[in-house]
Amino acid sequence: MAEFAADLIQTLRQTQSLVVLTGSGISAPSGIPTYRSAAADARWTAYDPDKVATFAGFERDPVGVFQVYQAMKRQCEAAQPNAGHYALAQLEQLGTQFKLFTQNIDSLHQRAGSSQVYEVHGSLARTICSREGNLVETWNAEQPICPACGAPLRPDIVWFGELLDAGILQAAKAAFDSSDVALVIGTSAIVEPIASLPHRALRRKKTVIEINPDIPLRGIATFSLAGSADELLPQLIKEVWKL
Fold this sequence. Notes:
The protein is an alpha/beta fold. It has 2 domains: 1-32 and 82-121 and 165-243, Rossmann fold, CATH 3.40.50.1220; 38-78 and 123-157, SIR2/SIRT2 'Small Domain' (2-Layer Sandwich). It contains 10 helices and 8 strands. The strands form 2 sheets. Strands 3-2-1-6-7-8 form a 6-stranded parallel sheet, sandwiched between helices. Strands 4-5 form a two-stranded antiparallel ribbon. Strand 6, helix 9 and strand 7 form a beta-alpha-beta unit. 36% of the residues are buried.
């Protein structure tokens, strides 16, 4: 069992509003690879992001890139939410003002029971026309094109060089500005503009709690808890709220 600082426990017990940001680290215990770790199966070790995570790469090989993400989608569908996902779903039920923003595209938060999830980078669960952006439900696996206009299909996610949804980004900024406490879980804190959100909260004298094996915000966050979210989050919630 982890031991948590008394002032951390007291801060969480007194909070009236909580914002959460999750990255790929929260889904790693579910068997979904992270992107930037040293692990052999890390996404950007297995794939060249310039080839599969940019629109230019997609234009060069739309079918090949689409198939890469279909394989990722199948992997996510086969995975199960872990204790970290379920712990956050419990937090949502406390009655405290609560907002959950995730950089993940695996839909595991929703499958764990979280009902209000802001998908910062989109979701593999949705497929769209690369020209018009409309949702597409069915397609020919050998020729994945939009049935309306014939343009190649793509996953409804944000690639490098593309803009985040303006509404979601504004909601994230507002939540980090106003919430008493920000939980930052399993994210490398590298990819902008999301990486700036914890710093935004700190400038406004908010409490930032980091949970990450590598604790990249150590010395910056108010509290840094080194460990896996599937182990630490349930323990923390039990200690604070007796759930």
